[in-house]
Amino acid sequence: MPNALITGITGQDGLYLAELLVGKGYNVFGLIRGQNNPKTELVEALVPEVRLVAGDLSDIPSLLRALEASEADEVYNLGAISYVAYSWDQALLTNEVTGRGVLNILEALRLYEQIHRRSPRFYQASSSEMFGKVHQVPQTEETLLWPRSPYGVSKVFGHYTTINYRESYGMHASSGILFNHESPRRGPEFVTRKVSRAVARIKLGLQDEIVMGNLDAKRDWGFAGDYVEAMWMMLQQDEADDYVIATGETHSIKELLETAFAVVGLDDWTPYVRQDARFMRPAEVDLLIGDPKKAREKLGWKPRVAFPQLVEMMVENDLNEQKKLHGV
Ligand code: NDP
Ligand code: GDR
To answer: Fewer Cβ neighbours under 10 Å: the N or C end of the chain?
Structure first.
């Protein structure tokens, strides 16, 4: 059975990918950081088969030890500081983890290869945020990168570093340029989950309003469960490459609000939503829409969950969660 090492195991994608790989018979190892990570219990509860190894993307020796402990055949680098808005407040830290962390793990892989003569395949979690101020619609693997946040800049560094290590050392290193993907496991700081949770709470009488930022931005939203399959598919190819993973549809934040409120029978969302400057970003990414043609043709990948079902899934989940939490 192959062995896989996942960084970012406690995150949305780490959990879905771990479930997918365990289902395929992999021995899955997850890198866990900190001396007492509160999310350990979540991983143990959802995917008890995963073996946790201590390590941090800013600490190369810990990454080497994780590779040795897991004897990984495949390494999925999902670990990052991933919240775009936060990246302006902690730009250096974001750069350290989300950018330099990629170089660190690639260097750890080189050391591992020199010492143990093993060459695991590598997946880098690149992002549509790299397109930023978009130079082409829809965005493809060839579109110029023009990031708009410290997070986006750090992802561009990680992306090009992955390509450079592939070209310099012949590593089987692939980058998935994933557009926004969501699920009931999405962190509450991201807009879809913030909305689905607030809609559930408003419906249940636990909250009166939701305070938002820019409602005109447009995103290409898919379901995380579909997107982790694409990651795995990339590492099964003979040649490493870069792929856009997206639905090819875009929706505004206003449409997200409309769709989410409609799930609970509230057809006019406007009385419940207030805008506040504190949720506006210093530079915005206005429009993202990806062209997943290459992934469809070369990997045979396609998304299964469409936008309305995704929003419904998230609102229903939050309704159940809030009911349980508050006994209503
Ligand atoms: P999450 O924010 O849910 O998870 C991020 C993970 O990174 C967590 O497990 C976190 O661990 C870990 N992490 C943070 N800092 C470090 C560190 N110093 N060393 C090791 N691990 C660390 O992100 P997602 O699951 O949504 O995304 C996965 C990856 O895909 C990220 O790289 C993200 O940038 C990228 N991406 C995500 C997209 C999306 O729409 N979801 C789209 C495109 C790219 P801890 O719990 O300990 O903080
Ligand atoms: P994004 O996701 O920045 O695209 O990055 P997020 O859900 O945070 O924002 C999407 C859009 O919604 C607008 N917005 C708000 N966003 C948040 N979080 N909170 C609000 O109140 C709010 N109001 C409006 C934002 O301005 C933005 O335009 C996500 C992350 O998962 C990244 O790690 C990943 O790389 C990209 O998706 C692809």
So the answer is: N
